[in-house]
Design a protein that fits this description.
alpha+beta, Glutaredoxin, elongated, binds FE2/S2 (inorganic) cluster
Length: 161
């Protein structure tokens, strides 16, 4: 994931130009930028505000409303463990502790190498197959502590490629 403050503004402009400069396009634009850079920087917010002719405060408001949008740079792999009742009852806590142990970070943190961010999320629709988590957009269900070790190992290997 490139950093938006390092990359040329050209990449940002390219994303913006794929959308008409209409307020309705704010969410899709934010999604695209978040996907591309891993977060929405102050520079990006100002560019969007100018392009859509809306206040930066409105953009802030939308970003803080949607859990999947962020103003902070996150890891290449964002792990979101479901914290809702079915997963809680299926053993979410053991999975949470194993993720923290394997990654060496707490929930809400990002590893110093920028590879992993660890977060909780609400139900991801896998209630009958809990505990469940997302790694970016991929779902992992019926998790066990052993499975967590395998998944994290695999991601670490992939991240080194
Ligand atoms: S409660 Fe965890 S996926 Fe629904």
């Amino acid at each position: 994931m490139a950093s938006i403050d390092i990359c040329s503004k050209q990449e940002l402009t390219t994303i913006l130009e794929r959308f008409k400069p209409q307020r309705d396009n704010l969410l899709p634009i934010l999604n695209e930028i978040n996907k591309k850079f891993g977060y929405i920087s102050p520079v990006a917010m100002m560019e969007i505000a100018e392009y859509l002719d809306i206040p930066v405060a409105e953009i802030h408001g939308v970003i803080s409303f949607y859990h999947f949008l962020s103003t902070e740079k996150k890891g290449k792999y964002i792990i979101r463990l479901c914290k809702t009742i079915s997963c809680e009852m299926a053993g979410k806590e053991k999975i949470a502790r194993m993720l923290e142990k394997e990654l060496g970070i707490k929930f809400g943190e990002t590893t110093s190498d920028g590879m992993f961010s660890l977060e909780y999320t609400n139900c991801i629709g896998m209630c009958d197959h809990g505990p469940a988590m997302l790694v970016n957009e991929k779902v992992y269900a019926k998790l066990t502590p052993e499975k967590v070790i395998e998944i994290v190992d695999e991601l670490k290997k992939r991240g080194q490629l």
